[in-house]
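hey so i finally got around to running the thing on that chain from the lab meeting. sorry it took forever, my laptop kept dying and i had to restart like 3 times. anyway pasting the input first so we r on the same page abt which one it is
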Amino acid sequence: MADMSAELSGPQRAAIFLLGLGEAGAAAIMKHMAPREVQRVGEAMACLQDVSNEQIALVVQEFSDKISRVSPIGVGAGDFTRRVMVEALGENKARNMLNRVMQGSTTKGMDALKWMDARSVAAIIKGEHPQIMALVLASLEGEQAAQVLTLLPPEIRTDVILRIARLDLIDPAALLELDQVLEKQLGKGQEFPPASVDGMNTAAAILNHMNSSVEAELLESVKRADHSLGERIHELMFVFENLLALDDRGMQRLIREISVDSLVIALKGVDEKVKQKFFDNMSSRAADMLREDLEAKGPVKLSDVEAQQKEILTIATRLVDEGEIFLGKGGGEFV
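ok and heres what got predicted. didnt touch it at all, straight out
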């Protein structure tokens, strides 16, 4: 039965559990899920087939074991949710489920942005003051915020990241101003209480999700504007060396997702401890072959090394989000 657990991803386990609850039960849970979670679970639902009773029992048992650690976050739902669920489940099933999820809820203000694509968010805020842009990006998940920031004019990105990093407590007036901006596109505004913002970690998380070259350029620009702040953001960012924090099981899971060619380039020039971490979690034969490939590989451009490391970190981020691996780090979304 343990082997069966390894065959199922986090979204697949969630999908099996929700489908077992029926539409009403699943809808009651899904309205507390984040936008990307809804998308991933919806896609997993659409792909499930031939689920055995043993797999269902296993998923329920896992849920029972982990229930004390569950802390759902309430969010709304909108047009993006409808499109994803219709595509994943079909018109009829999606309509039945969404009718229950959406019952008594609306998507106004900042929560609505979490369900929009990056281009739409960028179009809404592109003419606003950089402080408004910073407030908006700080309310989004790191990956979505990074996509939006990339779409903003290059000359204002540094200013926006600096403002995000300096955020601490957002007063009601600022939140009201932000909601008034969104009101132009999203309708009726609402009042907000003061909100704490971890600006440093938010800025680090956004940079983590950006293209390597853009990330490096923007971080360097931030350091020129405020060296101390830039250094602190850099310290909080998810870098390749953070993979040392993975336990052996997590590292083995990550390695299964990485191509040999990608790993050979990513390991060029890294600290020996990092290389050894990978070697220790491979079979002796695979580790020996990787060592031979590294020795045989000629010089590699630094930009190529960084690109492959970024790709591996993106895979690690996905596995953490899906509950497949656990990784402690200074900032961002890994806790």
